[in-house]
Amino acid sequence: MTLTGLEQFIKRVSSPDEDVEVVQDASEFEILIGRHRAEIKRKAQYHWSLLRNCIRNTIQAISAADLKDIVVSHGIHHERQISHTRNVQQVVFLESRKEYLTSDGVNFRLFTEEGKKTAVITPEEPIDRIAYASETNQFIGWMHKKESVYLLGDDFEIISQARAPDAIHFATLNKNTGELLTIGPNYFQSWGIRYGARHLIPRLTANTQFGEDDMFSMYTLEDTAGRYQRIFFGYEKGVVVYSVYEGKLLECKDDLHVRTITAMTFFNPTKQLITGAMDGTIKIWDKTWHVKMVFVGHSGPVNDLSVYPFGPAVMSVSADKTIRVWNMETCDIVDCVSVPDSVEGLGTVIKYDFFYTFSGPKVDLWRIQHLYQIHTTIGYRVNTIKMTNHPHLPVRAVVMCKDSSIRIVSPRNGEVITTMMLNPAKTGGLVDAAYAVAENVLFTVVGNGDIIKSVTSTNPCTIVSTWTTENPRKLCNYLLVYEYVVEHLSEQDIWAVTKRGVATKSIDHLPKTQQGRNRTLLLGGRKDGYICVFNWETGKVMFKVEAHGTKGVLSMMANSGCDQLISAGMDNVIKVWRLYPFAAEALAPLMSFYCAHTPAYMSACKSILSVAFQDPSTATFSTVVYHLKSKSRYDHEPKDDHVDSITGMSSCPRMKLFATSSLDGTIRIWNETNNLVRVLKLDIVPYSIGFCSKRGDILLGAGDHLFIIPYSAYMPRAFTFKMMSMTFSEDGPEEPLPYNDDLLQRMDKADVKRLKNSRASLKFDSYEDILTKEEAMEVKKEKMMREEAFGILGTRETDIRLIRNGDIQARHKPKSTKETKAEAFLNYMKLFYDMPKIQLPREDEFPEDSLKELLSPKEIEHKEESYKPNQVEKGFFEPITSRAKATASALEPLQPGYPVSYSGFIPNSILVKLLWPPEVEDSSLEEKPYVPPTLTASQLEEIHGVKPRDASPFDVDSSFTSSIKSESTSSRLAKPHKPVEKLISRARSRPSLKAMPPIEPPSPVPSPRPATPAPLPDYVRQFEHSSWFKEQVSGMLLSSGPEPVDSDNFAAMLIRALLAAPMRDKKYITEALMKLYRKEGVSEEMKTNISVALMSVLDSNVYPVTCTRPDDKEFILAALDALESVSEVNAQYVNQLITNFLDGDRDIRSTVLAILSRGGLHDPYKKLIRELDSWDIWSLERDDRKAELRHMVNQWLNRWMTSYRLHMKDTMTQLKNGKSLHGRISRGQLQGHGSGHGSPGHKSPGHKSGTRRSSLKRKKSVSVADVPGRSVTVTVDNLTDASVMDGLTYMDAINYFCEMMVERDVEMLKRRKASEKKEEQSSMEAKLPKNTVLVLPKPPHKAALTRLGEMHTSHCKPERETNLSTDYRFVSDYTVPGVRSNKHDDEIFKITRFINLPMKTQYMNPFPSEIDKYDRRFQESILITLKSSQKFFFPENSHVILPPCS
C-alpha cells in the first residue's frame, strides 16, 4: 500500500461521519497507525518533559538564589572602594554607558558599574576635567584655570581645540540643550558642537561683574529644556542668577546664610534651590526666595549636595564625616551614614540605585536600597489599615489613626478621599470601623459602646445616626461588613450564579424581584462572646449566635470567596462559619479548632488561613498557615519568627502571599506553605500593614505617615516570572472630595486643622520639565532648520574636498577667448587693488606700559546704590504664610543668632559684665530672729471697744483665689514687712463704722457673740468710698474677722478682687495695689503674687485684653507700670513687655520703651524697634494671637541669650588663654561703675542688698579719674568664679543684640567704603601719566624688637628695664640648685631668660579736651583692654634632674 493510500485511510478514520469503505486488510493499517501515533506521542512527551525540566531547573535555581538572600534592608549600603595613586579631582558617571570616569589630574580611568577597572587613558594634552556628550558619544576636556577646551572622540583622541575668553574655573554639559557651559572671571560662555560634531563653536558669551578676586565658588543648573533655563552661582553668602539662553543677570540675593555658602543644588519638580553653608545648615528656597525649611544636623561645613534619586529628598556630605538624607516633606533626616574620611564630592542619578562619593585618592560606590517612600501625610500615628475588596469598585484603604479619626485613602495615588473626625474626649476613643464601599456608608464603634453610622459621600463625613447600647456586656469589640456580590458573575457565568444561589439559599424564599441581587451585612463581635447581625437602617440586632463564651470576640474576617466568616476569641478558639446572607439565621458553624496561644491577627486567601499568635510572657510571636479544605497545618522554624510584638497582618490572594509587621522593625513575607520568602528591614517601626493591589504593593503605617512599598522592591524573581503569565486589572487614581463648607463651620478649629493637614505626598513621573506643545514645536522647528543648514554646509564641504582632490572635473568646459582672459586677469588684479589699505601703527615709545594697559581688565561701569543699613530687614521670623506653627513637642535646639567675632573686639554688654560682675549675696550674714510685735493696753481697749456687727461671706470663684487665700492666711503667721504698731497707730483716726449699715442675717438663729473687728488702717480707708471697693473688697474685710489687716492681707484681697472684677475696675484696683506697695510696702512673696496676677490677667484666653478697647488699654498701661515696680527682670517679665509692644498702639509702645530704657536698655540706633517691626504678626489668628506672640518672643529671647552666653564664654576662655581683648565703653557707664558697685538699674522697694563678691580680681579698680585719655587697661588675675555666667539677664541679651546689629552695619559700611576706595584708587591710577619711576631697593635694617615675655628684662636695651627687672635678673654663671657644679657638654644647666609675646597696640588722641569729661554731649568712648595677668618665670624655683655621671 502506498503512502497516499495510508493518508487517505487516516483521513477517512478521522472523519467518522462520512461513509468509509471497508478494506480487507484494515487491521494492518490500524496497527501501523497506532504505532505511528504512539511514536509521535512518545516524542512529544519527551520533548515536553525536557522543556519542562529545563524551565523547572531554572525556576528552582532562581528560587534557591532568592532564598539565600532573603533579607532586604532599606537605606544606603557601601558596595566598593576604588583607590587611586593621586587625589581624585573629578568623577563622572556615564549614564548611557553605565561606566564611571575618574580623573586624578594626570590620567583618566574607566570603571564598570560594579567598580572594575577597564581602561587607563593618558590624554595628549594636559587635561584634568572632562564632560561627556551622550548625543554624539564624545568627550569635552579642559584644564582647570586654563583657557583651552578640547573636543575628544570616544577613544579620547583630540578632534579639535578652542579657546575661552579667559581661564575656565567651572564647566558643565547642559544635558537639556547639548551645549557646554564654561564659567570664568567676568564671563560665562555657551558652546555648541557643530560642523559634523568636529568643532566647538561659542553660541553665547555673557559678561559678568565677578572677576578673579570675587569669583563664583559653585554653580547649579535648572533642569529644563525651555528658554527660561537659569543658572545659579554661589558667591560668598549670596546667590547670583543668570539666564542661560540670553546671558542676562536675573537676580542677586545677599546674606542668605550666616556663613559662606559651600554647596548648592536645584530640585526641579518644586523649583526650589537648596544651599548648604559653612556652618552646617541646609536651606531650601522657593521661587520668591522665602525659606521653606532649614535642615540642621551637620557639625561641619557642607561639602556637597545632590538630589536623592527616589522621592523629594536631598543628600548631603559634610566635613563631619557623614552622609545624610533629608526628606523635604517630613522636614527631617531619614538616613545617616558615617564614613572614615571627610567626603569632598557626591554624585547621584535620578531613578538609579547607585551613587558615588570621593575624598582624597579614594572613590566609594554606594547602593541605595529604597524599599518605601511616603505615600500620604496623615499627621497622627496610623494604628490600623483595612482594605476593601469589592469586585466592582477600586480598592480603598480605611486608615484608623491615634487621634480617633478615620481617613478613606486611595492607594493608587495616596489622596485622602474623605475623613471621619471624632472627638476622643466625648466618645472615649476609636475602637473599630467597617466600611461599605458600594453604599458609601461607614460604621464606627467608639469607646463608650456607641455605633456611629456616617455617609462618606461628603468631606468630611456626615453622621446619619448613632446607635447606643445600654448593657456594657453587649458592647462590640469588632465590626465587619460582609459584601455578598453576585451580579458581576451573571455577566460571565450564569451557571456559577445558580450554584452560588442554591448554596446560599437565596432563591427559594425571596421574591422574584429580589432574587440574584447583592447584599451587604453588618456584623459585630461583642464582649459577651456573641456574633450579631445588625439591621442596616435601625441598628437593631436581627440575629445573634454564641461564638466564644464570656471572654468575648477578638477579631473577625470575611472570606466572601467561600461564603465564610472566620472569628477568633479570647478563649483561644478559631471558628469557621457558613454565612447565608438572605436567611434569618445567617450563620452556621462549619469547624472550630483550639490554639495554644491567643490569635492576634488573621488573614485568608480563599481556603488558606494564616493566623498570627503572640504571647509576650513566653516570647512567642509566630505565624501558622491552615488549609481549611485539606485540614492541614504548616509551621516554620522558630528562627524565622519575629522577635517582638506583631502589629499587623495582611494577605494578597492573587499572589498567595501573607505579610506580617512587627515592632522589631521588620516586615516578613510568607508563602502559602508558611515558608519565609522575604524579610524587609526598615528604619521605622511599622504599626499597621495592608496589601493594596493584586500585584503585591504594601501600604505601611509608621509614625505619622502612610508609606507604600512597591512589589518590585521586594518580590522574589520566581513570583515575578509567574506574574508574566498573569493579567491584572489596574485601578485608576481617585481625587479627594471637595470640602463641605457647612460641615467645616460646625467643626472646631483644631479639627479643621487636623482635617486639612492630611494630604498625598509629592510625586513626579519626570524629574525634568515637560515642554508645552508650542515649545516642543519651536524646538523641533529649530532642530530641523539647524539640520538643514548643517546638511548644506556638509554637502558644500564634501564638494570642495572632491574638487581639491581632483575627483571632480568639468564636463562641458567652455573655450577661453581673449575677452575672457582679459576679464579674468582684471578680476584677479582687483583682488589686490580693491583691498583696504593697511596703515602701520606708529612706534610705541613705551611698549611695556601699553601691553600692561591692554592686558589689564577693563572696568565695568555699573551703578551702585548708596549704602542704607537695615533698610529692609527680614527679621528673626519668616512670614506666617510660609512657615508652619511650631509645636512645643518638636522644638529645635537653639543656636546663636549671629556668629561670634573672634577678631578681639567684644561688645559693650560683655565688657561691662566682665568689669563689674553681678552682686552675690553673702550667706554668712545671718538674719536676726523674728520677734512678733506686742500691742499696748490702750490699743487693746480700743479694739474691744468697737461694736461687733454681722457680716456675710463674699463668694469668689475658687479657681482664681485658692492660692491667694492660702497665701493670705499664711502671711498672718509669717514675719510682717512693716511693724504692727505702725499699722495700728494709723487705725486710731478711723471714723465710726456706722456709716456702713450691717447686713441682716438670713435667719434669726442664736449664735455666740462675734469678735469685734479691728479698726481699718489709713491705707485701707482711703479706698472705702470707691465703687469698686464696695463691690469687691468690702465683703472680704467683713469676713476677715477681728484680726488686724496688715499690708500683705490687704494686698491679697486686692489680688482676689483684681481677678474677679470687671475690666472697668481692674485699672483702679491695680493703682490701689501700687499705692499700697509704694506707701506701706509688701513682702517679697506678695510682690511675686501681684506680678503673677497681673500677668495672668494680661495673658487671659477667656477675655483677651486688647488695646482697641479703652478700659483694656487703661488697664494695660497701669499693669505695665505696676510690673515695672514689683516684677523681677526675668524672661517672663521681658516677654510680657515685648508682647505688649508688638500688640499695642502708640501709647503702649512708648510706655514699654520707657520701661525698657529705665531697666537698662541701651539702643540709641533703634535696632530693637526695627527688629520687632520686621516680624510678620498680622497674619496671626485672632483667637490665639497672644499665645503665638509669646511663643515668638520666647524663641527670639532664648536664641539671643544662647548667643550671648556663647560669646561671653568664648571671651572668658580667650582671657584665660592669655589673649588681650579690647572694647569701648562710654564715660557715663564708666562713671556709674567706677566705684566698684554693680551695674545701675531700676530697683523697686523691697529689694534686698547683700555683700558684694566679685569674680574678677583686678589689680586696679577703674574710675573716671583713672582714665587720662581714651584708653585704659584692666588686668585680670582670676576668672574662676561662675557668677559672671550666672548673672546674665535677658536685658543684657537685648543690649547684646542691639550692639551686634550696630557692629554688623558698621562692618558692612567699612566693606563698602573699602571697595569704593579701592575703585577710586584704581581709577586714579589709570588716569596718572605714564612716567618712568626708579624704585630703589629697600635698605637693610634690623627687625623691630619683639619682647619675648613678661619678664621685664632686656639685654639689648637697658633703658627699657622695669622696676621688676632688678629682682629677677639672670646670673651668667647660674646653676640649677641642688645639682653639682660639674659642667658637661650633655648637661642642662642654664634657664631660658624670657618668652616672646607681641607688644600691645598704643591708642593715641592728639587733640584732647578737658571739657569732654564734663559734658556728656562730647564724651567719647573709652577703649578698654583686658589681658591676663603677667606670668613670671623664677629660675631658682625650677629644677632639672640631670643623669648621673658615669
Helix content: 25-40%
What is the number of helical segments per DSSP (H or I, 4+ residues)?
Answer: 28
Placed side by side, the strands forming the largest sheet appear as: 1-54-53-52-51
Structural class: alpha+beta
Give the averaged pLDDT, no decimals: 75
**Largest sheet, if any?**
5 strands, mixed
Show unreliable segments.
Answer: 1-7, 9-24, 489-495, 502-515, 858-904, 920-933, 946-1011, 1234-1270, 1328-1338, 1341-1395, 1414-1420, 1429-1433
What is the 3D shape?
flat
Please state roughly what percent of the residues sit in beta strands, choosing from under 5%, 5-15%, 15-25%, 25-35%, 35-45% or over 45%: 15-25%
| Number of separate strands | 61
Q: Which secondary structure elements does this structure contain, and how are they paired or packed?
A:
Blueprint: H1 3-13, H2 26-68, E1 71-73, E2 75-83, E3 90-94, E4 99-103, E5 108-112, E6 117-121, E7 129-133, E8 138-142, E9 148-152, E10 158-163, E11 170-174, E12 179-184, E13 187-194, E14 199-207, E15 218-221, E16 230-235, E17 238-243, E18 249-253, E19 261-267, E20 272-277, E21 282-285, E22 291-295, E23 302-307, E24 313-318, E25 322-327, E26 332-338, E27 345-347, E28 354-359, E29 362-369, E30 373-377, E31 382-387, E32 397-401, E33 405-409, E34 416-421, H3 424-427, E35 430-436, E36 441-446, E37 451-455, E38 462-467, E39 476-484, H4 487-490, H5 494-503, E40 519-526, E41 530-534, E42 541-546, E43 553-559, E44 564-569, E45 573-579, E46 587-594, E47 599-605, E48 608-615, E49 620-627, E50 632-634, E51 646-652, E52 657-662, E53 666-670, E54 676-681, E55 686-691, E56 698-702, E57 705-709, H6 717-723, H7 741-746, H8 749-757, E58 759-760, H9 773-805, H10 818-833, H11 847-855, H12 908-915, H13 937-944, H14 958-973, H15 980-986, H16 1018-1021, H17 1027-1038, H18 1047-1060, H19 1063-1079, H20 1084-1098, H21 1110-1126, H22 1131-1143, ...
Parallel strand pairs: 1-54, 60-61
Antiparallel strand pairs: 2-29, 3-4, 4-5, 5-6, 7-8, 8-9, 9-10, 11-12, 12-13, 13-14, 15-16, 16-17, 17-18, 19-20, 20-21, 21-22, 23-24, 24-25, 25-26, 27-28, 28-29, 30-57, 30-58, 31-32, 32-33, 33-34, 35-36, 36-37, 37-38, 39-40, 40-41, 41-42, 43-44, 44-45, 45-46, 47-48, 48-49, 49-50, 51-52, 52-53, ...
Helix pairs in contact: 14-18, 17-18, 18-19, 18-20, 19-21, 20-21, 21-23, 22-23, 22-25, 25-28
